[in-house]
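Annotated sample (chain length 529).
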Amino acid sequence: MKKKILKLLSFIIILTTASCREELENDLVSSPEKTQLAAKVTSGLYESPMPYNINVVYFIPSDGVARPEYDRRVSEFMLAAQEYYRQNMYNWGYGNRSFGLLVNPATNRIKINIINGALPTSSYPYAGGGNKIQSEVNNWFSTHPADKTSDHTIIFTSVPTPETEIPYYGLGKTCFVGDNEAWDYQYFNQNTSQGAKAKWYMGGFLHELGHALNLPHTALAKSQVNTPGYGTSLMGTGNSTYGYSSTILTKSSCAILNNCQVFSTTAKPTGYFYASGKSFEITSITSSYSNGRINISGTYTANAPLNSIISYFVPGSAYYAPSGLASYTANTFSTYIDVEDLYFTDRDYTFALQATFLDGSLKDAQYFNFTFVNGVPDVHFQVDRTSWTVSSSSQYSAYPATYAIDGNINTYWHSNYDDDSVQTDPISGQPQDFPYYFDINMNSIKGIGGLSFIQHQGLVRTGKNIRVWTRPTTADGWKLQGSYVLENIKDKQYITFPQQENCRFVRITFDSSYDGQPYVAIPEIGAFE
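Output written by the structure step:
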């Protein structure tokens, strides 16, 4: 299949309906060559009931020509796509609407902007060619402003053969596909080689069009793949299943389209869509796993009205990332996913939340990672340790405190065992013996629910009794979170605070070891949300 380079994001990330709805406005928008009254646009022989319409460009490299009947083929593909998106929006409860498209009602042909490229076809390769074409198209629209009817554009590049290498992906609100007479929608329903080519093309075309309409890669829940009425997500691997088996948009994709400019049925003030400056941050998060289900909830802040929060569970490749709509209030969210709905249970995942704002803007919150251990999810979201600094009251020069946060279980912090060495803290001059302090400075205040530990993989010098203290600033006194007993095991283990604590500094006091020796060696120490 065609290569794809767009990535999620904004992942992401699954599971109930939004509670807010976009308010409707009826502002008058006009231009010399277009007349727009509320939700009506005319441009010469072309018209649309929608105020914003996707820009359709036919791009011809300098050594190319317009392919025979390109206007019919492009029109048929675009009108079929419009109907496909309409059906999916309706099926998910977002109304009987699709993206706007300028159409000549007498001929049923769409408005196509023909742009002649400055360079030959070979100068627009897959890698980097999209930026070149987009630059030329943007320059053309700057001198033909009346022909630009929205922020969203699809570019059909004329190619001499189906095998010709060209850009075939999305960049922002623009996507690139090819045009050749070998790809013809009129053969789509035929069980012939021409029909197979039409299906192959249509799947990729619909997928890339989705990127131009703000859609990231995402998947349906695994259990829905073989459920009647569901199937494969178009924005997952559906570009290869379309035309052969049920291929649909996910509900989260339709939630994004719900606010997309070219899906708006009413005109908005200039600058309304995709206004900059949006913020969306998770301020606290908790997670748990029981009875086959991962439950995640927390609090958030946003600086503008939103009408859905999408959650994504991303297993590295967003093509297999189930997504859906989280339940939410003005400042809380909750979501879940059953493990049977994940496509893999043998790799790391990223959990992401994405806010959809009324003006069509999308904003990802920070990401959280979890993994599977023997097929069971470990949903303690680890705090990023990149900015941490650490120190200890005792360390051997070859095994410093920094080894406890380097991500390598085969290196470790070890208390000092040099002959005649003494500690400087907690009692200056004290021989090397418990207690030992291990201090963490996270360099900013974070909400943490506890700590994680990995013991020495040889199960020697393993820590046993510990106490944990926290404080938000150096001006604050230490707050005891509790006394804990670490297990004498090789696997990662956790100690949980009585409640999530906002702090910057953490002090771990090691009071004893399992082997009875006055030393301790710890490969990894972390914190979780």
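Annotation: Confidence is low (pLDDT under 50) at residues 1-38.
Annotation: Helices lie at 70-91, 126-143, 193-212, 251-257.
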